[in-house]
User: What shape does this take?
Amino acid sequence: MTTIAVIGLGEAGALYARGLRDAGCTVTGYDPFATLDEPGIRQEPELADAVASADVVVSLVGARAAESVARDALSAMRIGSVLADFNTGSPALKRTLGEAAAARGILFVDVAVLAPVPRAGAKTPLMVSGDGADRFAELYAAAHAPVLVIGGEAGDAAGRKLVRSVFMKGLAALVLESTAAARAAGCEDWLREQIAAEFTGDAPQLIQRLIDGSQQHAARRAHEVDDARAYLDALDTPAWVTSATRQWFAHLLGEDAGQRTTAHEGARA
Assistant: This one.
């Protein structure tokens, strides 16, 4: 039976701890700021006690605390066990943690969580890299979660997740900006229908059409974006994403290169 220690018992950590317990794992936990009073989950008052006998230590403490908590955990973990960093952090941070783990004879896995945890708990799809990736996938199989092992080093999974975040968080910002404008213009329901319609059909074809169309019709679309931005100003709603869109068309048209040259020459003068 796999023993898993969950460090950080906030919303996500509690969901993982419960899900792993229900999957038949022996679960210990540690969190000095939260108490998870659950049968079958032994919450320890000391971090060292929580991780000492674990096959896998799952860190869910946030990127800011990830390194300090990892170093504390590593000092008490068994040689050959696995430290799984589930925190959303930079590739550089993940590489640092991987190096610290290797120095103590402990396997490290960079875990990218690919969907909101409240949706599926411990069964949330994961993408992993690092020297502990294969071992983690083997030990985590009890959770019946999709685990994509991409190979490579610690930091590779984090990098892919952050690239994905550019799209997902950017898409959210775009929806926020466009629906705010539509609300001000009195046509929010209509716009929501338009957005939903774009999400149906052949998704790969849509992606390529957006790329090709932007490159082929950059001048016309730049002019349209200028008009859209002026309209949002008239509606007194945010135009942050729209302004960034205009910058992309400037890049495609080569306008930004000229602006950078001018700025650089001005700085030298």
